[in-house]
Amino acid sequence: MLEQKTLHEKLTELTSNLWWSWQPGLNEIFRAIDQPLWSGNAHNPVILLEAYPPEKLEARARELGLHSRINYAYRRWHEYMSSHDTWGATRAGILNHHPVAYFSAEFGMHESMPIYSGGLGILSGDHLKSASDLDIPLVGVGLLYGEGYFSQHLDANGWQQESYKTMHPDKLPVKAAVGKDCQPVVISVETRTGKIYARVWEVNVGRVRLFLLDTNIPNNTDEDRRLTARLYGGDTRIRIRQEIMLGIGGARALAAIGIQPSVIHMNEGHSAFAPLEIIRERIQEDGLSFDAALRETAASCCFTTHTPVEAGHDRFDAGLINEHVGPLGDQLGLSHDALMGLGRVNPQNPSESFCMTVLAFKLSRKANAVSSLHGVVSRRMWSSLWPWQSEEEIPIGHITNGVHVPTWLATQMRVLYDRVLPVDWHIHTGEPGVWAGFEKATSGELWETHQSLKNQLIGFTRRRLETQLRRNNASEEQIAEVANVLDPRALLIGFARRFAPYKRTDLIMREFELLAQIVNDSDRPVQFIFAGKSHPRDDNGKAILQRVWRATQEGPLKGKVIFLEDYDINLARHLVQGVDVWLNNPRRPLEASGTSGQKVVLNGVLNLSILDGWWAEAYDGHNGFAIGTGRSHVNDAIQDERDWRSLIDVLRNQVIPMYYERDADDLPQQWIRRIKRSVRTLGWRFNSDRMVMDYVNQCYVPAAGGLSSQIPVL
Ligand SMILES: *Cc1c(COP(=O)(O)O)cnc(C)c1O
Per residue, what are the HEC states of 259-315? Predict the structure, then answer.
């Protein structure tokens, strides 16, 4: 029966589900069909299949001998979707009829859907993918940003330029979500100044469904039609309007679709209005008092806080709250002061603004930070919410972040894993025993695999640089130089992340002469690739970016320190798979977890990082390198100086000598031992299957059963 479908039908069906995106085989098939079209359109299969109507696709597939590979992928997909012999089936049965609703302002699933800006979004995407792989009944709720997050280009002076491209829903793997009446769902949220409407799109992420609200419909004023145009693009008024759509609108969308979640998981405070809408439903449907409805709703709500950085916690003034949440407050029988009190540490303090994080804590009985150290920091940061408890008793536990293995693992590395790990390793990635087999890989095959990934990255970097130069009308002479950029035999260090001040991208450039000396050592040279976006309205970030960029353009670092534009999932994938070392030097303890360093572990790359976030609990002295001793100084300037000294010291006395110490076969045996230890000790812990299993055991199942157990604090 399956055979009767055309190739085009099969691929259309396959790519209507983002499952395809974490199948290396399918990525290779699309690349083979039309490499330029594929790379030129953010790896978007909808666009590719439009350009290859059935007959043309059939001919191309015959030419390349793709039929059996496509049929195989298609069969595997059906097997995946119909198999329920899974971890979730045995461990999360209580959620079967009433799934978890996972709310997030961003979802980073694939480069063809740029509705994420950074780590928070990637984490949400990886959470959905692991929930699908483990077969956890879960739906996602978010916003469809029609113009997404921006693409980054640098002008000829290295100043960041942002560009936005409108994504048409018919070019994305989305369909209109339908309600119980089989009609497309449209919901509304009333404000004091009018109603805002949204339609709802459905995206399939394996077994999981993600619902995205979109205000770009004719019911709205022109201004509100643009409300969901951009992620983090507006002022606080746009922000609160986006957040009432995400929280209140999202909860209404689920009700309209006929989904009654048993658990609400708020991934960061942006969605903290959602429980208020659930409370309204309980009052209206079950006749509960506000207090009783709040108690019952909070028992089924989980909240994950994501940053100790103050600016990362949304605050709104009383006017904005009254305009946007006032009507819901009226229905809940709350006075303006009582409503404001829900978002204040001290409800009676009229000078306190309304904080979404405070609201989220008050409306959930389970709260967690995203690493062990971040747990300590969060309990201290929010202790005033529980003034009667000592710091250790503050009910904020931690579940450390992880990454989705199939999304971030290089194909060549996967081949190696397939050979040395147990056959079904990929469905047991959360178990330590499974990873022990990595010791069996021989030094030679491991190093060869790594070296081929590094060569791939160097080729990619040269192509990217050429494109960047052509855009800025560089001379042919300048373009020709790109062929000599980066030496595959020299140590290559990667650094890519948002240009937030605490991430200190330019720390290593503190003493330029010293860096130039390290880079240009003729026996043991060192090279760097930098990437990262600055927030569009952060001119400080842009100035730091410009400084880093300028250093790469001429003088002693040229050709050896590279800046690549437009950091996104695609660029991240290349970087985390192909560098030798991944550098991370945040100002401790501001990196709540960090996940890019977890991606490199899977690919045989070593971390060189401040003992902050996940690395503070991951580093064991032999599975990577540590900068500093895990202390913080009250004075930033002193801390920066101290960390810089340690970074240079570790680089010169540990990293560089170990990398260049070779045996008779030119293999760095000590380095390879560290890689093996890194994969073996970290792979099983810092992946999103383990993370989602922790959420199921510690949050979802107890919350669905109305049990009030806390996430363990330590
Ligand atoms: C993984 C990832 C991040 C988050 O990395 P951090 O180490 O937490 O900064 C941000 N952006 C992209 C594109 C990523 O892939």
Answer: CCCCEEEEECHHHCCHHHHHHHHHHHHHCCCHHHHHHHHHHCEEEECCCCCHHHCCE
pLDDT of residue 712: 55
Task: Clarify whether residues 181 and 280 are in a common domain.
Answer: yes
In a domain, 16, yes or no: yes
**Pair (449, 576) in one structural domain:** yes
pLDDT over 70 (residue 706): no
Do 154 and 189 belong to one domain? yes
The answer to whether residues 611 and 491 belong to one domain is: yes
C-alpha of residue 123 to centroid of ligand 1, in Å = 9
Ligand 1 centre from 122 Cα, in Å? 7
d(CA 569, ligand 1 centre) in Å: 8
Ramachandran angles phi, psi of 391, nearest 5°: -55, -40
Query: How much distance in Å is there from the Cα of 544 to the middle of ligand 1?
Result: 19
Q: Write the residue with the smallest CA distance to atom 3 of ligand 1.
A: 119
CATH number at residue 370: 3.40.50.2000
Are 104 and 64 contained in the same domain? no
Residue 9 DSSP one-character state: H
Nearest CA to ligand 1 atom 5: 596
CA-nearest residue for atom 8, ligand 1, is 594
Whether residues 370 and 416 share a domain: the answer is no
The pLDDT value given to residue 714: 40
**233: pLDDT confidence band, cut at 50, 70 and 90?**
confident
Looking at the predicted structure, is the pLDDT value of residue 93 above 90?
no
Residues 6+ apart with CB under 8 A from 2: 71, 74, 75, 78
Q: From CA 31, how far away is CA 340, in angstroms rounded?
A: 53
Kind of pairing, strands 301-304 and 315-316? Answer: unpaired
Give the pLDDT confidence of 596-605 residue by residue, as tens digits: 999 999 999 9
Kindly give, in sequence order, each residue whose CB lies less than 8 Å from that of residue 5, ignoring residues fewer than 6 positions away: 13
Q: pLDDT at residue 710 above 70?
A: no
Residue 91 belongs to a domain: no
In this predicted structure, what is the pLDDT of residue 88? 95
Q: Choose one of 120, 371, 595, 609 to mutate for the ligand 1 pocket test, by most ligand atoms within 8 angstroms of C-beta.
A: 595
The residue among 54, 82, 110 that closes a domain is 82
- Asked, for residue 87, whether it belongs to a domain, the answer is no
Measured CA to CA, the distance from residue 372 to residue 378 in angstroms comes to 10
Give nearest CA residue, ligand 1 atom 6. Answer: 594
Half-sphere exposure of 383 (CA within 13 A, CB side): 12
Among 371, 497, 530, 574, which residue has the most ligand 1 atoms within 8 Å of its CB, making it the best to mutate? 497
Statement to judge: residues 332 and 464 lie in one domain: no
Name residue 24's amino acid: P
Mean pLDDT of 244-273: 98
Range of the domain at 19: 7-82
Pocket of ligand 1 (CB under 6 A): 118-119, 122, 497, 567-569, 572, 594-597, 599
| 64 and 209 co-located in one domain | no
If you average pLDDT over residues 157-161, what whole number do you get? 96
Residue nearest atom 12 of ligand 1, based on CA coordinates? 118
Span from the CA of 124 to the centroid of ligand 1 (angstroms): 12
Residue ranges in 135-203 assigned as alpha helix (H): none
How many angstroms separate the alpha carbon of residue 605 from the centre of ligand 1? 16
Q: For the chain, how many structural domains are there in total?
A: 3
Residue 401 C-alpha to ligand 1 middle, in angstroms?
12
In a domain, 526, yes or no: yes
